[in-house]
Design brief:
There is one protein chain. The protein is an alpha/beta fold and 425 residues long. It has 14 helices and 22 strands. The strands form 6 sheets. Strands 1-14-16-15 form a 4-stranded mixed sheet. The chain has a 4-stranded mixed sheet with strand order 3-4-2-13, covered by helices on one side. Helix 1 runs parallel beside helix 3 and helix 3 runs parallel beside helix 6. The chain is globular and about 60 Å long.
């Protein structure tokens, strides 16, 4: 069986961090294969408002960023609108904590509901001040300035919070140490170390020592493994051809989904191809497979949190009952993903239940049929679109436009992977 060759869009997490680090660097940085989604454009728009020259994010174009140095961002004198992007809001809170002016941050209705105290509390311990305008979330005002060193034990593993604190230490030129109960993705640490910042990076612990300047850089951003996971899933269950996904990020803190897929019996192969600014890159080959149920334990969740929706969909086509433990963090994503996953799976004829912070999914070989409520959550829309590509399926999505948040070309790529069957619409 011939393989479809595709390259997933640029990694969302790395695109965000590359834009921020380029803004704090001295000189012109160039980014290729940057993600051009709505979330990435929210970050670029906010940085422009802070005085950074960022060229347009367009497919196939090189993004040029002229940095202003570690403490050179300008007072925007207006609110920064972060759209639907929690990464934009949280990383910028860290950077702005070190700048001596007040900035109001806001976002769309979904983002305004997402918790921000998990980052503002430790930043306040460093000396930044915050004014909550509607409780724990956006809009809020950050008043930055001279910061104090911090050594912080995070109650919940979060790459966004960890990244925000490290960026605060970088921009504020103070030492920062962060410990977390389980390892989360370490893109910030890898990129900083590759740029010469003294940094300890080991599982569950990151510690940054201050520097006076950050050099400009060039980077070809790896393909996003979270986006690639939807194409892998389609190759596994949709009755089409196998897929070769080129230049995918295979950072171990992001590769948890690959380990889970292998436990489920997926036929996949990883071909390493080197590194990009500290990030390992490779090709991933996936072929149609008969899947078995899995158990995702609490310690694994930080490395697969964004892939739980598509893993749950795959579990619905596997033999046996799958269990996803301690996935309560899904309740405070773009939607209450945990409840919606269970409800939507039941709506298409799959046995599923969310109890406490765990999710149970019963596998079935019956064609899924029914209407799915995406709640304008891009990962729910893509996951159930994959399920709708199973032969005989009739899955209707409440909307499809939300996929532009992270993967504007998703439906075109999904059609390329699926040679028979019908995609959800």
């Amino acid at each position: 069986m011939s393989l479809i060759r595709l390259e997933p869009p640029g990694d969302k997490s790395i695109t965000h961090r590359a834009l921020v680090l380029a803004a704090l660097a001295e000189g012109r940085s160039e980014l290729t294969h940057a993600l051009t989604s709505l979330d990435a454009r929210s970050m670029a728009r906010a940085l422009r408002a802070l005085g950074v020259a960022v060229s347009p994010l367009r497919a196939g174009a090189t993004v040029a960023v002229t940095g202003r140095g570690l403490s050179g961002l300008a007072d925007p004198r207006r609110a920064l609108h972060c759209g639907n992007s929690g990464t934009t809001a949280r990383l910028l809170l860290g950077v702005l904590a070190a700048h001596p002016f007040a900035v109001r941050l806001t976002g769309d209705a979904s983002l305004r509901r997402r918790p921000m105290r998990r980052v503002t509390v430790p930043l306040a311990a460093m000396g930044a001040r915050f004014e909550e305008l509607r409780g724990d979330g956006l809009p809020l005002v950050v008043r930055g300035g001279t910061l104090r060193p911090l050594d912080y034990q995070m109650p919940v593993a979060s790459a966004q919070v960890k990244g925000a604190l490290l960026l605060a230490g970088l921009a504020g030129r103070v030492p920062v140490g962060v410990s977390e109960p389980a390892p989360s993705r370490d893109h910030t640490e890898r990129m900083l170390a590759a740029l010469g910042v003294p940094l300890v990076n080991r599982p569950g612990r990151a510690a940054l020592s201050p520097v006076e300047r950050l050099p400009a850089f060039t980077l070809r951003i790896p393909g996003d493994p979270s986006s690639a996971a939807f194409l892998m899933a389609a190759a596994l269950i949709a009755g089409g051809r196998g897929v070769l996904l080129e230049n995918v990020g295979i950072n171990p803190t992001r590769a948890g989904v690959l380990a889970v897929l292998q436990r489920m019996g997926a036929r996949l192969e990883i071909v390493p191809k080197g590194t990009a600014l500290g990030e390992p890159v490779g090709d991933v080959i996936v072929r149609p497979s008969d899947l078995k149920a899995c158990r995702v334990e609490a310690a694994e969740v930080p490395a697969v949190i964004d892939e739980i929706p598509v893993l749950a969909v795959l579990a619905s086509r596997a033999r046996g009952t799958s269990v996803f433990e301690e996935v309560g963090e899904l309740r405070v994503k773009e939607s209450n993903r945990l409840e919606l996953l269970a409800r939507n799976l039941r709506a298409v004829g799959v046995g599923a239940e969310a109890q406490g912070d765990s999710l149970w999914v019963e596998g079935s070989d019956r064609p899924p049929r029914g209407r799915v409520e995406t709640a304008w959550d891009h990962r729910l829309a893509m996951a159930f679109a994959v399920l709708g590509a199973v032969p005989g399926a009739r899955v209707r999505l409440s909307e499809k436009d939300s996929v532009a948040v992270s993967y504007p070309g998703f439906f075109e790529d999904l059609r390329a992977v699926v040679s028979r069957g019908k995609t959800a619409g």
